[in-house]
Amino acid sequence: MKKLGLRIVGWKQAILIPLGGIKYMGKYKPLAVCFDFNGVIVDHRSKKTINGMEELIKDLHDNHVLLAIVSGSSSKIINRYLDKDLTTFFKRIFYSNKMNGGKIGCIKTFALEYGLDLVDIAFVDDKPINLKQLACSSAYVIGFARSGKYPTAQECYNLSIPVASSVEELSRLLLN
User: Fold this and answer.
1) What pLDDT is stored for residue 27 in this prediction?
2) Radius of gyration of the chain (CA)
3) DSSP per position, 35-52
4) pTM of the predicted model, to two decimals?
């Protein structure tokens, strides 16, 4: 039987999670991270990798965190704009518009494939509707408000989930 511990999700809510290696010095540390592509890994406008994101991806990989992309973008768009060196760090790239269940379905599939529970996975997105859909799951949902395209910070506040407005803040949330 797994021991359970308390994970603070936001200032309003806490959930019980198994302590199988995901608590680190009293802080939550995900075993896997699923990133949205457009607006999180690459800038919405320029389609260039966001400054600092390559280093964060490499740091997560070096810390043995499993990585995936969960995106509504097509394979053509992702292959065109994702730096070829970065593709090697991702275990899977999911095209949520081609899977049943959208992004949550992709994340559940990723969890099953790697023997994880949803509580072991962090999901990073900038689009409020995706954050809202995932906030009800047991995944660790983080809003990324760097792009300014969406009212991400306000939605995160409404949902009581963490928000990062820079790669540095995101790094602190994921790597502690």
Assistant:
1) 58
2) 15
3) E-SBTTTB-TTT-SBPTT
4) 0.83
Average pLDDT value for residue range 81-86 = 89
User: Is there a domain that residue 6 lies in?
Assistant: no
Read off the pLDDT of each residue in 57-78 and give the average, rounded to a whole number.
Answer: 95
The sign of the torsion formed by the CA atoms of 114, 108, 48, 30 equals negative
Domain assignment of residue 33, given as a range: 21-175
Residue 8 lies in a domain: no
CATH of the domain at 95: 3.40.50.1000
**Which are the contacts of 164, defined by CB distance < 8 A and separation ≥ 6?**
124, 142, 143, 144, 145, 146, 170, 172, 173
| DSSP E strands, the chain | 4-8, 14-18, 23-24, 27-28, 32-35, 66-71, 92-95, 121-125, 140-144, 163-164
Structural domain contains residue 113:
yes
